[in-house]
């Protein structure tokens, strides 16, 4: 079991690494060659620049019981289908029960934008977002460790 991070524009990386390090779990951060990420704990892997390159690498790399941190609903849907877990950088857990609705919401939002409509900008990151990310990631790591051990 690993924590795999969609590292392009990923707030909260320090909290992700802290939660994983405290639980002795490997962290892999994927980012495009356009970004320079330095980490004392995580392994940073670079992919070619280009639209969706990091998303595809993260999706392809994930396997059962891995935990993927991404803001992308499409990435979350793909890794959930592989038996991995997914969490947003604000600590929202993506599940088989909520992902379809989130993807539909994304589709509707894209249609509105394409027709000239607008949605409000995302809210600024808060301390509550940080707390939720850390707490939910810790719970997810603990749960997946147990599931992984029970299977082996």
From TrEMBL:
This is UPF0178 protein SAMN02745196_03062. InterPro entries: UPF0178 (IPR003791). The lineage of its organism: Bacteria, Bacillati, Bacillota, Clostridia, Eubacteriales. Pfam families: DUF188 (PF02639). It comes from the Bacteria. Belongs to the UPF0178 family.
């Amino acid at each position: 079991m690993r924590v795999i991070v969609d590292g392009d524009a990923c707030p909260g990386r320090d909290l992700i690494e802290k939660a994983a390090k405290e639980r002795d779990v490997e962290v892999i951060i994927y980012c495009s060659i356009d970004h320079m990420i330095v980490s004392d704990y995580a392994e940073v892997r670079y992919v070619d620049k280009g639209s969706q390159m990091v998303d595809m690498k993260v999706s392809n790399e994930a396997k059962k019981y891995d935990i993927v941190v991404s803001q992308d609903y499409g990435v979350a849907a793909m890794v959930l289908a592989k038996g991995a877990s997914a969490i947003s950088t604000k600590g929202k857990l993506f599940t088989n029960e909520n992902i379809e609705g989130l993807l539909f919401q994304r589709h509707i939002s894209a249609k509105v934008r394409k027709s000239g409509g607008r949605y409000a900008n995302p809210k600024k990151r808060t301390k509550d977002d940080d707390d939720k990310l850390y707490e939910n990631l810790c719970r997810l790591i603990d749960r997946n460790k147990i599931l992984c051990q029970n299977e082996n």
